[in-house]
Amino acid sequence: MDHQGGHYLNKAAVLSPLGAARMCQLFLGCSIMALVSHGAGYSASYGVFCMFVWCFCFAVTLVAFALDVTRLHSCMPISWDNFTVAFAMLATLMYITATVVYPVYFLESECPDGDCAAWGYRIAVTVCSGLCCFPYGAEVILTRAKPGAVVGYMATVSGLLKVVQGYVACIIFGALANDEGYTEYEATQYCVVVYSLCFTLTLVVVALTVSGRTAALPFPFDRFVVVYTFFAVILYLSTALIWPIFSFDQKYGTSARPEDCPRGVCPWDSKLVVAVFTNVNMLLYFVDLVYSQRIRFVSHSAV
User: How far is Cα 9 from Cα 265, in angstroms, rounded to an integer?
Assistant: First the structure.
């Protein structure tokens, strides 16, 4: 028994909808890793990425579940509620990505060379990965801000959008890694600077919130977030106009995909991915700006 008369173990961390969601996450995550190791297999950078997603999410979920059950999370120098909801949002996005990437590169329409056993394992991995998106999504729904409730910033729509914005920026950086053509023009270099600047500031906002250090800032955190989001919308709007011109206009590039462009490493495909997700992030920042006007910020390390 602790000094407040409670139990050392937190039964609510298990016997609750949130506990059930986390146990489902652990069960499906363990199943995926076992299937991949036993027969499904993985290779190349895309396979390594998928395996990293499954191992990383399983490890963090296991640690979070253990800390919640033992109540040891209160000893952590972070804002626990902000951390868990931010991770749940990130894990949802990572699992969705892995669920799309793995079958595209490892699941053929028919058994490869008669090896139907590995093919069946890969189908099972894809199904389990897709199913695991739901318990992580359920955790986000269960822990997000409710009308009138006082919660941490990451539990609000604006906070969750920060995680999505950062993840989309990582997708953009991944596409840029397959195409160094952006160094040819100053305009495309400017776009990369915008992506990097906005990603860095988004990461700073998330880090300050999760660490519970927003109250220590010498300026109002809420004003900083709103002003930064406003400028991010303007900057992304400029890149949404500039990038397609210097990537697909006949004067600077090619509007059609080259026929001899190899699948998976085609620079033209990378340019298209950057163009699409630039517009996606621009819309996310705009929605974020709208929601930032409707929430009441709480800047306190205990939240």
Answer: 50
Contacts of 177 (CB under 8 A, 6+ apart): none
Find tokens 């489902």 and name the residue.
24
pLDDT digits (tens, 9 = 90+) for 244-270: 888 877 776 666 676 777 666 677 778
The answer for residues whose C-beta is within 8 angstroms of residue 253's C-beta and 6 or more apart is 181, 246, 247, 271
| Tokens linked to 139 | 């955790």
Give the tens place of pLDDT for each residue, 121-174.
888 999 999 999 999 999 999 888 665 555 677 888 888 999 999 999 999 998
C-alpha count within 13 angstroms, C-beta hemisphere, residue 42? 24
Q: pLDDT grade, residue 300 (50/70/90)?
A: very low
* Cβ–Cβ under 8 Å, residues 157 and 68: no
Per-residue pLDDT tens digits for 50-78: 999 999 999 999 999 999 888 887 777 88
Distance CA 82, CA 79 (A): 5
Nearest to 84 by CA among 100, 64, 66: 64
Give the contacts of 216 (CB within 8 A, at least 6 positions apart): none
pLDDT bin (cut points 50, 70, 90) of residue 293 is confident
